[in-house]
Amino acid sequence: MPTLRVHDSPAALPREAWNGLLAASPQPTPFMRHEYLQALHDSGSATAATGWAPMFLGLWDEARLLAACPAWLKSHSYGEYVFDWAWADAYHRHGLSYYPKLLVAVPFTPVPGSRLLAVDDDARTMLAQALRALAKETEASSLHVLFGDGADQAALLDAGCTARAGVQFHWTAEGDADFSAFLARLQRDKRKKIQQEQRRVREAGVVFEARLGAAITPEDWDYFYRCYQQTYREHHSKPYLSRDFFARMASDMPGHWLMFTAMRGGERVATSLIALDPERRAAFGRYWGATEHIPNLHFDACYYQPLAWCIANGYQRFEGGAQGEHKMARGLMPTRTASSHWLAHPAFADAVNDFLAREGEAMTGYLSELNEHGPYKAKDAADAASS
Q1: Rounded CA gap, 22 and 190, in Å?
Q2: What does the pLDDT look like over 221-278, one tens digit per residue?
Q3: Domain residue spans in the chain?
Q4: Which residues pair with 6 in a beta bridge?
């Protein structure tokens, strides 16, 4: 009979076995690699001190790891991107505690992908059931698995969870020879706007430098982190990730990062950081910041430069991150995302399940409406919506 073990650090689980499960999963991403999760932990970015008490699960058959997932007991709902603030407020108004809650996700990273890593569906089902049991054992108000794949959804549905739909905006390759060919497929007003925005950036004297992997210098990372901090200051909040986290990324996962630096007069003025999955030819927009305000620079650094790079390097997908209908005007199309939820309190569970059913119907209509107003010419819009 498999044995479940719960650990307070990813280091307790063997890296090779964890990454082996990830590689065999339906939708692997770099953010579920052992190195990434270990860096979050060791850098102090996601620990009990920041409201993320680690509970890494491993399902073992003697010395063989059958299934695993990262979990945290949360004392808040920051850094998740699937919003449950209204649920927490409802608990509070009824004199109940919503926290702690049990969360399975990648901290601060709204990238869809496999969450319940397993050798097969049976092991994944056992892991889902173990999560439900752990939520009860820890007296958590609820269990949440965010941005999981279809196999995760099925296992969690069997374990009594309810699905919740969301939307993000992703670009999918359509065989364009270059960025100009991509622009040619857009509706005239969208194409002209992008060309105008890029022209204004060039007229401001800005040029871009792209550095990949080990070519990103410590000075580049230092400047990036300065910009990263500035972005949070502008939103009156504090950065989730420490400088040490990015130092660990540079040393432990260098091949998964691409950095664009905007230069003017030989000086850095802005930067954007893109995560890469070279094996699956996928790119993920992550962070951006600037030390000087230049109109339209954000769009160029975060969308146009990465898209041009993806097309030139044969990448098949670029995910623009959470939310943002404005991304459609830049050629990114709506994509459904999913999460799974279970609440321990029966009355609140019924209310939330009813809400999720109605929200799901509304989301289906919303996605249909978005696809009807896509940025591509008629034929290309149909192709993009079906991809």
Answers
A1: 39
A2: 999 999 999 999 998 999 999 999 999 999 999 999 999 999 999 999 999 999 999 9
A3: 3-167+335-371, 174-315
A4: 57
Kindly write down the DSSP assignment for every residue of 236-251, as one continuous string: T---SS-HHHHHHHHH
Q: Encode pLDDT of 34-53 as tens digits.
A: 999 999 999 999 999 999 99
Instruction: Specify whether the backbone of 146 is left (phi greater than 0), alpha (psi in -120 to 50) or beta.
Output: beta
Cα 131 to Cα 138: distance, rounded to the nearest angstrom = 10
Sign of the CA dihedral with 232 first, then 146, 56, and 352 last: positive
Candidates 3.40.1060.10, 3.30.360.10, 3.90.226.10, 3.40.630.30; CATH matching 3-167+335-371: 3.40.630.30
Region for residue 266 given its phi and psi (left: phi exceeds 0; alpha: psi -120 to 50; beta: otherwise) = left
- Number of helices (H), then strands (E), in the chain: 13, 15
Residue with tokens 């954007």: 272
3-167+335-371 with 174-315: one CATH topology?
Answer: yes
Residue 103's Cβ-count burial label (10 Å; 0-12, 13-18, 19+) is buried
CB atoms within 10 A of CB 300: 24
Q: What CATH architecture is 174-315? A: 3-Layer(aba) Sandwich (3.40)
Q: Tens digit of pLDDT for each residue in 262-285?
A: 999 999 999 999 999 999 999 999
φ and ψ at residue 357, rounded to 5 degrees: -65, -45
Cα of 202 vs its chain's centroid, Å: 31
The angle formed by the CA atoms of residues 175, 177 and 178, to the nearest 5 degrees, is 120
- Strand locations in the chain, DSSP E? 3-7, 52-54, 56-61, 64-69, 72-74, 101-104, 117-118, 142-146, 162-172, 206-212, 257-264, 267-277, 282-290, 317-322, 333-343
Read off the tokens for 133.
């049991």
